[in-house]
Design goal:
heterodimer, A: about 500 residues, alpha+beta, Peroxisomal Thiolase, Chain A, domain 1, OB fold (Dihydrolipoamide Acetyltransferase, E2P), 3 domains, 5-stranded antiparallel sheet, 12 helices, 21 strands, about 25% helix, about 25% strand, B: about 400 residues, alpha/beta, 2 domains, two-stranded antiparallel sheet, 15 helices, about 35% helix
Chain lengths: ~500, ~400
Amino acid sequence: MIGITHYGGYIPKLRLERMKIFQSMGWFAPAIMMVAQGERSVCNWDEDALSMAVEAARDCLRGANKTKLDAVYLCSTTLPYGDRQNAGIVKTALNVHDSVMTADFTSALKSGTTALIAAFDALAGGEKKSILVTASDKRETKGAYFYESWFGDGAASLALGSENVIAEYKGSYSVSHDFPDHFRGTGFKYDYMWEERWVRDEGYSKIIPEAIGGLLKKLGVKISDVAKMAYPCFFQAEHAKIARSLGATPEQVVDNMHAVCGETGTAHPFIMFISALEGAKPGDKILMAGFGQGCDALLFEVTDNITRLSPRKGVKGCLADKRLGMSYEKYCKFRDLIKVEMGIRAESGARTAMTTLWRKRKMITGLVGTKCSKCGNPQWPPTDICVNPSCRAVRQFEEYEFAERAGRVLTWTADMLAVSYEPPAIYGVVQFNDGGRMLVDFTDCEQKDVKVGQPVRMSFRQHHPDEMRGYHGYFWKAVPLKQGDGKEASA
Amino acid sequence: MATGIKDKVAIIGMGCTRFGERWDVGPEELMVEAYLECIEDAGIETNDIQAAWLGTCIEEVNFGKSALPLSMTLRLPNIPVTRTENFCATGTEALRGAAYAVASGAYDICLAMGVEKLKDTGYGGLPDLNANAGPLNWLWFPNVTAPGCFAMLAQAYAARYGVPEKELKTAMAHVSAKSHANGAKNPKAHLRSVVSVEKIMASPSVAHPLGLFDCCGVSDGAACAIVTTPEIAKKMGKKDFVTVKSLQLALSNGEELQYNEWQGAHFITTSKCSEAAYKEAGIKNPREELSMMEVHDCFSITELVTMEDLHLSDRGKAYRDVTDGVYNIDGKIPCQVDGGLKCFGHPIGASGLRMLYEMNLQLRGKAGDRQLKDPRLGLTHNLGGFPFMNICAIAIVGKYGA
């Protein structure tokens, strides 16, 4: 049996209530009132498709054995690098061993489901035994546009294998159509969209049923045997109508999440599917479809193992963990839709030395430190000479991962002088509960949320972006947790 | 066995510019301004100088690398000139070079110059630290500023000793108010207004919990000293001159930020450096023996905590000594008699020598309105870097023979 062994989700904490868009821009585009319900998820200023993918993959790998991974796939239409494999950065951030195949699946919103099918083909062929597939998107739109409200940011990750399968893979069916509902030319920031009515009637309404119908026919499964169907469609009425056209009841359709986060692009089929898994019972058949210049449909059957899956945040946890109250102006600043004076101080910055990054890739991208073989002291950064004053062993250490370690705030500040997209810049010293400490930026918090002694978890973020050279620098930051949060964190 | 340099080095001349936003001059002109006062005070000529040390910290906004700017600006006679840099201990490092040179007998007369031109950046505060911290630190160091790093000291201090935020803010305000009162009497000081505790506490936040008046001035300035041996000073007919009693340095070794013991509420380096300095100077009870101090009050909390690491106030109690006026000009040990970094200003490379300039004036009875009654021993202290990784420099000076 091959199938899904673990899942993980990541939806950024920030939510923009869509009515705020209308309140700010209704004078200009009154029609956006039609989509001004609920809230959409929004990346913090230091998040992008790649950083969200790492967070989703970390959630997915809880309780999984990452040393057995044969491949790491990353699926997105909004990856930071056009040439420098993004999946390789994810693999390094997860500190996965080097004898692994990495690949980016990109340039279609269905690339997530396509990667899943490719991964299952490899598993079925026996060449690979364990594959991590992560989908993520942070799509940009201009302001006061329907799509600004329809879209949300998010990521989700699925681990595939043959041991402890929680959802057995039953098969897939794909159709490919060069249906240009939208496109984004290389080097362009925004999508160019064709008329919504056409996209709805000739695209979603015909192509998704074609793939799902084809799959059911291929597998000899009746629609009534399917417990849940997860397929994207941000036209609310049409989303339900597609199910009816296939002979399904409204209960069989997974909510498209417009009200709670918006459509997360490549990640959305995964996110909807995971939300179905979170409420599934053994024996349930769940169907997933990805739409974008064609459609992939996959069918799964939930197994008993789902009841034994280790706790994780998943999609449900992410939807519950949110920061409301974001203004539309702040959204515009974070998405670079308005120019704000950042001051001369913001001009300073340095190039990133690729030689240094390569040498220190485990320390920086993987947050890997050392544990002294002589005294057992964990430390970050790794150094030749042990920091313990009563040890000072020279080059006697083993690798020690810090990313999943729980820590506490030793001290901190909220700095109005430091250049920041969201002043004050909050940073401090984190003491890890099992030893080791680091000076680090804090993120996803406000001044009033932080206290000495407060628990934190580490999160992979943009750290030193370099707009002049098109470079995206990543590092880890501390996220202060509310009391009782972060129970899913190990250590 | 090393015995230190107590009374082996005489300071026979000092000069110091007016500190402030010196839009009219660059680092070269600042050096000349301090130097002319200094050689007049020493009664020597440029050709008498046998070796020199130049301290400047942020060379990118000054005159670039090397010691050439000092040699060329003063037209020194092709002698050895060395540039020193050790964050805020830079000026004291220049003095160390010159002092050890005469103490060793290598040279008879040496110059120590410290200068910094900070107001050519186009913005307030210090230049960005991270971009120049090397390619590895660039990859991970948080987006810190100096006030932010010292604000973390205040947060940890309050947490460690259970001091309510308002009480600590009040004590910090007393630190700044005292320095403003002293600086107001100093014609060379950058900031010369008396400011009340209430106004200080009401100032806008720079880095929580530090407000604007918890931060020192970012200034342009230069200060310098001519040193020789006491024997040569006497031969030159000098009477009543000042000698170095101790000169010490202590640097972090990374334990603050990488090991598990330091709680963020004090300076490991200052604690050790002051012990070494008292030993070299033969001081048994610093609270009784020191007459005055100029310490590194880059931020009010730095000065407050430093009182504990200089072993003058008990641990966790300095905030009470501060509010009780122990370090006021009429207190037990007057601190920041010239206004301190807070009000005299903080051109980094010049600061250590500027502190010494005030000690020299006080010991020779030339401090005018600020003159203390019969001071015997004075201590200067610099803290370069951050509470979690730093350089501490301490000098103790006194009258020769005292």
